[in-house]
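[agent] plan:
  1. take the single chain provided in the ticket
  2. run structure prediction with default settings
  3. attach structure tokens to the ticket
  4. add a short note for the reviewer (M.T.)
[agent] executing step 1
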Amino acid sequence: MKWFVLIVVLAAVAVGAWWMLGKPKNPAPAEQAAATARVARGELVLEVQANGSVESNLDVDIKCKASGEITTLPYDVSDRVPKYVPGKNEDKALLVALDPIDETRAVQRTQAMFDAAAAKLDLAKQTLLVAKQDLEVARSKAAADVASAKARADLAKTSLERTREMFARNVSTKNELDTEVANTAVAEATLKVAMAQQEAVKSMELAVQQRQADVTLAEANVSSAKVDLADAQQRLADTKIYSPIDGVVTSRAVQVGQIVASGIQNVGGGTTLMTVSDLSHIFVVASVDESDIGRLIETGHLGQDVSITTDSYPGRRFRGKVVQITPRGTVDSNVVTFPVKIEVLGDGKEALTEALMDGRRYLALKMSANVTILANRKENVLLAPSAAIQYDRERPFVEIKKDGKLARQYVRLGLNDGTQSEVLAGLSEGDEIATRTGVNTRWSNDGKAPTTRPTSPAGVTRRIGRAAR
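[agent] step 2 finished; step 3 output follows
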């Protein structure tokens, strides 16, 4: 029994070895079953599909610089408002008015303070003027007194000298000489007093400078009061908010009687009263997957044609064009997308605009939209099925059928829509090439091992893109 089991095991091992050694490792391409297709000319279209939302040309959040209770709120959601033009359309462009009582009182207080500062300035100027006049009078009087005293002193000296000469000739008496000596001393003393008074006038110049400083201070107070008054008047004016643009009220968060916080004095940024949107241009901002964004960037220019559909208009398409590709992507759940801005054109823009502005059927600007962007289009180009393309490392090739046999033919490729590839060199129209379900691709272990790649029906344009996540 043991010999029988041993014989069976040895026989099984021999059969397995024979099967392993006899099995071909890598069948030649010619041994694989292969279908064929003809190289033909046709149109190659590359399209990118994405989802996005309808956006306005500009959204302005309306806030108020002042705080207070709302007393006037003439516009509601979907109402059209004109841009404020000072002196022309205050009534029509008024969006919100607050109770002005507090700000009016503040203006009255600052006005009174300004008037008081202005009065103090006038008083300081008058005091300075009087001080200057007193200084000029004192200067003139001191100069006259000095001149008069000097003249009397000179006269007294002259008379003294004459009297001395006369006394020396015994023409004058001792009493007359003593009188002249005394008169001369008095005149010199009077001159010194006049000169001292002239020096005292300089102290009055310091007083004038003090008065000038008072005027300067009063002018500064007036300037400060003027600024405070302007601020108070501005705060009063800020109780009325006007529309900064021509647009439509797309949201309103407040009601008459509600108290709102200032947008510049409140730490939280104040209360958003409403949003006014400019609908002169309508856009769709689509999120294009990073695997598709290169299709748009490689064209080197903007303006690609776009087909737009929305759930609000089943079966209807709108035209658009790409106007902006954001160079910085956004990451959400490890998925990178690039915002692409598309302007709605022609009938599409008019239809969407009318819908957004129609109060009977108002549509939110954030409604979803599906876009198909024409990334590239080539006509009358040589096309080969993508299933026929194989790779020898980085070199693409096909198996061309000649005389009933398949031969390797290297090619140079252009665009590829996933179904068909543009052939730039290496093939001619009408060439018969093999198409396979398992071929060496550019990404299959550097072309060393075959990688199965499913084929697609010929003549189907590839829709590049991903469904909404």
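[agent] step 4 note for reviewer: Residues 35 and 435 are 5 Å apart (CA to CA).
[agent] ticket updated
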